[in-house]
Structures are given as structure tokens and as C-alpha cells.
Amino acid sequence: MKSPQVKTWSGFIALAAAVCLVPTLSSAATLAGSYASIPRNADINLSAAGSVDWVHWGLHTETTINRKAGVTSRIGDFSLVDTPMGFAFVYQYSDNYNGYSWSDGTPEVAVTDTTTGVPSLQL
Fold first, then answer.
1. pLDDT tens, residue by residue, 86-117
2. Which of 22, 28, 64, 94 allows an S-S link to 60, with CB 3.0 to 4.6 Å?
3. For the chain, how far is it from start to end, CA to CA, in angstroms?
4. What is the rounded distance in angstroms from the CA atom of residue 109 to the CA atom of residue 123?
5. Ranges of each domain in the chain
6. What whole-number distance in Å separates Cα of residue 61 and Cα of residue 42?
């Protein structure tokens, strides 16, 4: 049989652990945005639109990545999420309805009106 002092400490430790595990309440954040269609044959200037960061995938191949130069990247790379059947892949296209340009990129410093990109195809 345990002594009363041991019982007191075990109860105190259990209470302390329970208090530490209770989640704290925090206020929720709100995100607001808007949507606008991009007209066909438009040239989107990523340098002007992405003052903090931008990324373009698929300039030369499906694995080509160009990013805004001189900033800490805030946009990660994409990951292909496979289908349950296992038939998914990424390919490079060159016939987008609109083009993309930039003048502050790396490794390609400047590109004008490229219609390339990378979609994923899942079968």
C-alpha cells in the first residue's frame, strides 16, 4: 500500500499533466480574396504581380522551375499526388491561353510571354 505522501504527489503530477494538455483558445484568422478571369492572349507579368514571391514551372521541361530572384522563397514546389490506381504524371505543355513574363527571375532572368506550364494528368 502506498503512503499518503506518494498518493498526493501522484495526484499533483496527474493534475499538472492534464492542465498542460488542455488546448489553449486562440482567435481565428480571416482570409479574404477575389477572383478575376484572365483574358485569352493576356501576358501576365509575374515581376509586377508577385512583389513578394512568384514561381513558374515548366518553361523548358516538366521539371524546369523559375523563381523570383533575391527573395526568400515563400512558395514551395509542387508534389504530384498519386491516384488510388497509381496512374498520374506531370507533363509540360506549351499552348496556354495566356502568357507569362518576368524580369527578376532565377535561373532565367527574363522571359517574355511564355505559354508553357505544367498540369498534372490523373487517369
1. 777 888 999 999 999 999 999 999 999 999 99
2. 64
3. 66
4. 36
5. 43-122
6. 22
